[in-house]
Amino acid sequence: MKVKLFFLLSLLGLSKAGVVSAQGGCPPGQYPVSGEGWNYCAPIPGYDQSPTSSQPEQPPARWKSRWGAIATDGVKGVLGTATGEADQSEAEQKALAQCHTKGGSACKIQTSYANGCAAMIVGNNGFSTAIGSTIEEAVSKGMKICRSDGDTSCHVYYTDCSLPGLVH
């Protein structure tokens, strides 16, 4: 009887060993799952998948420059602006056209800019325009220009930005 019991326990041990060795055959990112009479590989939640996984790789974002411009008729005090235009020439043409539409006759471009912001600062001694990566930077630069000749009445008259747009 002892021999039969030993033989039976040995067989049982070998069969379990076979299941255990079969469980080690899962591919990376999966773990073995088994029960009585069955086993399979299941994905590990949150496992860092390789670029060859079934998820499509996203293309890098593409940005398109956007232009703005400021045009003025300084004698008549007329302002024309444009923002979000596709190129510098288009922004300048629209700013000039707006200046003329508002009654300006000697309109000229004061500044044009891409992917940034512009400010016009007005004081008793005239006006100044400046550009920067933010409105705050453009205003700060414009105020320095306006105050450089001692003008203490400088104030912000106009600000806007032409920021790049995502290409779809």
UniProtKB/TrEMBL annotation:
<feature type="domain" description="DUF4189">
    <location>
        <begin position="67"/>
        <end position="161"/>
    </location>
</feature>
<keyword id="KW-0732">Signal</keyword>
<dbReference type="Pfam" id="PF13827">
    <property type="entry name" value="DUF4189"/>
</dbReference>
<dbReference type="InterPro" id="IPR025240">
    <property type="entry name" value="DUF4189"/>
</dbReference>
<feature type="signal peptide">
    <location>
        <begin position="1"/>
        <end position="22"/>
    </location>
</feature>
<protein>
    <submittedName>
        <fullName>DUF4189 domain-containing protein</fullName>
    </submittedName>
</protein>
